[in-house]
Design a protein that fits this description.
Blueprint (H helix, E strand, L loop, with lengths): L1 H26 L1 H13 L7 H7 L5 E10 L2 H5 L6 E12 L3 E6 L4 E5 L3 E4 L12 E5 L1 H10 L3 H13 L5 E5 H6 L1 E2 L1 H9 L6 E2 L12 E5 L11 E4 L33 E6 L4 E13 L2 E7 L30 E2 L9 E4 L8 H5 L8 H4 L2 E4 L6 E14 L14 E13 L2 H18 L1 H23 L6 H4 L8
Helix pairs in contact: 1-12
Amino acid sequence: MKNTYCIYSTGILSVVVVIVSIALVLSEVFQNALNARIKKEIILKNGTEAFEAWENPPPAVYMQFYFFDLRNPLEVLLGERPFVEEKGPYTYREFRPKDNLRFLDNDTKVSATMPKTYVFVPEMSVGHREDDPIRTVNVPAITVIEKFKTHPLISNIISSYMKSQNIGLFVTRTVHELLWGYKDPLLAVVHKVRPEIDEYFGLFYKMNTTDDGEYVVLTGSQDYKDFARIVEWRGKSSLDWWTTETCNMINGTDAASFHPLITKNETIYIFSSDLCRSLYATFEKEVHVKGIPAYRFVPPKEVFANISVNPANAGFCVPAENCLGSGLLNVSMCKQGAPIIMSSPHFYQAEQKYIDDVVGMNPNKEDHQTIMDINPLTGILVRGAKRVQVNVFVEKIEDFSQTGNVLTLVFPVMYLNESVEIDAKSASKLESVVYQANVVINIPFIIMAFGILLGVIFIVLLCKNREPEGTKEEQGPLLQASS
């Protein structure tokens, strides 16, 4: 009797445990508890790991530059397509700790500057040196030509001076000069008349050991989705370069941090001062980085599509209604009037005509797509690559003989790959966090498995304890031996 009671108690307990586990799964009690804890801990507040990682990101960031060396300058001036060869990478270690931190509005916001320092890494630039010569388009000359091309008298004076100094449409400078700056002879002359025009030029001139202005970001204390979201830059809550309110919005983070608990159907917003605009990325696929699960987000083609594909991009047409084809962004308004046009490397995802205009363009997704691999639980960027190309608009201008018979085209100068991947120490710590979270989330299923195990034990015990039917006489042999 006692055995029977224990057996049936086991069966009842099994049913109860399974029912409870199902209720826990459906109510997501443990999932919600975990989410609440993450929302509480991942905020920008002194003493939290999230704040320390935001203030001084631990993974090494590398900036790789690839230049397009022009091989046929004379033929280009005669109207042929430019032929370029890619040279690089020229790799720099990028240091970017936050500085001048101040908490604002009851610690709901924090302001900071983000100075960046670049240090050349020869061992990651095998075969390439900072003093390598690069022949490319003369950006300062084209900037001056574009600025004064509608003033015939001034144009003739400038053209004559350029001819006397043998200043042409193309120039040969070292990698270091093109990146970090050199005193340009034409800009030096213009500077005497127009002091607001700097006599130095470099693609990253005044961008080493300096910051690009003060940022104000939300701490995430009021809403976890606001973690590290930028609300002000350089004292303004919106931009003023573009022609619509939507295009002038400052949205998202700086792409170094994201809010936790990211889902696949989210749109991730990023603000890039390099591109002078905000942009967005959408989920592409699941990946693993050093054993850590991540969601890959990439900017879709619509981000840089022309207005026929994405009418919301009309505000990026500058001057108004002067729209470029898909894949390009005219940033001259925020680059001191220089005719700079941004794109993805090798015109990846741009209209085919831009690829065909230049011999040597070989776009491919693996090398030229911008990616962000984000751990969805914590919002930590475990791997990222920002890939952007700098181009210059060139055309024939009658008052400047230096332009010859050059074709009207978008000339590629160089592209960069700013990449980061989580370091081994941080990966080990994050892997432990993800493992613990998985254990917590799966507690209901562990309970369910225990209940099923009890059910199996109940059935086994029940079968073993079952009494055979009939009396002892009935159970004896049918035939008995006679005495």
